[in-house]
Amino acid sequence: MLKHDLRKKYKDLRAEITPPKASDLSLILANHVLQIPIWDFFYFHTFLSIEEKNEVDTLPLITLLQGKDKHVIVPKISGNTTMEHYLLTDSTSLKINSWGIPEPVDGFLVPEDKIDVVFVPLLAFDIQGNRVGYGKGFYDNFLQKCPKQTLKIGLSFFQAEEDLITDVHENDIKLDYCVTPNKVYAF
Q1: Sequence-ordered strand ranges (E) for the chain
Q2: What confidence tens digit (pLDDT) does each residue in 17-59 have?
Q3: What domain of life is recorded for the organism (predicted)?
Q4: Which residue in 70, 74, 121, 187 could disulfide with 47, CB within 3.0 to 4.6 Å?
Q5: 170 annotated ligand binder
């Protein structure tokens, strides 16, 4: 399938999920993350959810990571396709940007080479770990700057597409895992 078609399909599917259901599924996803062998790492990067787009709520995941004394890093858009990364602390102030994304106002910058695990937002993914995001390239650009061994974990309310994504670009970064309410995929 083409990314364009998958974007439309999964935006429509996400729109059908009620807020209480999304909350329940997000908690299930956070608990499924416990199955992945990542707990010896220290620096975990996660997106902050866009509420209006009915994304997976990462707050249960953040609570889990902080409960295990992990450093949680969150992004802030800093250019056309680039992001900066800030340590999330009790004193971090967040502000909603023009795209509806919560971002840190300021704080402690964390370089990409420190990041061990990245929880990646997505709309869809296939059985080979290819993902479809919103198409702006922020995460592919970011992941190219991370060390090769950085684990990339998608979070999705839906199962993998059996049909492969046919318009994968050479700069697209594959996932290592994807967590859904029913299954943890390893690629």
Answers
A1: 43-46, 71-77, 83-87, 94-96, 102-104, 117-120, 124-125, 131-132, 151-155, 177-179, 184-186
A2: 999 999 999 999 999 999 999 999 999 999 999 988 899 999 9
A3: Bacteria
A4: 121
A5: no
